[in-house]
Amino acid sequence: MDLKGKVCVVGAAESDLGKVAENTSHLDLIGQAAIRALDDAGLTLQDVDGVFAATSQSRMVGLGTCEYLGIKPNFIDSTQIGGSSFMSHVSHAVAAITTGKCKVALIVYGSTQRSMSRAATSQRELAWYEDPFKPMMPPSAYAMSAARHMHEFGTTREQLAEIAVAARKWAMMNPVAYNRDPLTIDDVLNAPMISYPFTIRDCCLVTDGGGAIVLTSADRAKDLKQPPVFVLGTGEQIGHANISSMDDMTTTAAVESGKKAFEAAGVSKGDIDVLALYDAFTITTLLFLEDLGFCKKGEGGSFVENGRIAPGGDLPVNTSGGGLSYCHPGMYGLFLLIEATRQVRGQCGERQVKDVDVALAHGNGGVLSSQCTVILGNSSAV
After folding, report:
1. Is the pTM above the cut of 0.90?
2. Residue 141 DSSP SS3
3. pLDDT per residue over 47-88, tens digit each?
């Protein structure tokens, strides 16, 4: 069934970000982002009949969200596969809307992990074959992948640092980014070591924050407040749960999720104007550039050199500043979809990329475990 262009993103917004007011809950941030996204779309809570939610802070966030918002939707989905959950939600929302299960889908997330600490907001999964070695999770899992990439392909710490520097340059043009101070490669290399080869500047922020997007049918979208951003294609693929069960520590399931999304959208990498890639760590941006086909396996390090993915470079990546400099409230994927939507609309102000018709948002969950890809476009791309 061809679903290309049948459903649109019509609203997108963040809640307050950074460190929020004392006693603010994750549901407060979900509610704030939801109201802002619905206002962005020109809709109200009464229009919502489908709710999609995930967070590490609550086992039944879907129910909590509906109660908090005072709605009883026809359709609810609480798929929880970490930071890629929200790309998965987009795929499921497209299916629900095109089959008549709901008409207006609200996808939400919220976390107060900076105010409460990561340990208090995210229950750690047991890893039977890894926990005896007492790794610092999740950084040590991603660090092993980075170390393997360095060993196998000669990737350098300086090349990984280029990714953090590029993200910071984009963040300096984003007024709501958490870190906007200048950053150099030496700054990254000389920052406190977290888990070799990562210093703290190779690692994502720890912030509070919520996000929301609103989707509806292409027909309904015609009469709403914002120009519709069409869902052109989606792809989901699970690889493993624990890093010790990953088939190849330098290749992720983004190979499969990206292929599915490109085929559904009927576009190729040359059609993508902006990339929004899950950057929990510098290595994830590099791996996804390779696995989504923007460069060959092993060439990600040289690909990002000399500011190629920074402002003014050949390929704009993570224009919000990403999880490394903009915000990262635990499960970051929804914020990639918000930025991709704004770039396609042409509403990103100083950091807006010229003539964006198609954007790709890619989510990662667990320890490189689940990979989900969404390709969005304007009316000229349908």
Report:
1. yes
2. helix
3. 999 999 999 998 899 999 999 999 999 999 999 999 999 999
> Strands 209-217 and 7-14: what pairing?
antiparallel
Q: In this structure, what token pair is assigned to residue 95? A: 């299916």
Q: Between helices 333-345 and 85-98, what is the axis angle to 10°?
A: 60
pLDDT in tens, 188-229: 999 999 999 999 999 999 999 999 999 999 999 999 999 999
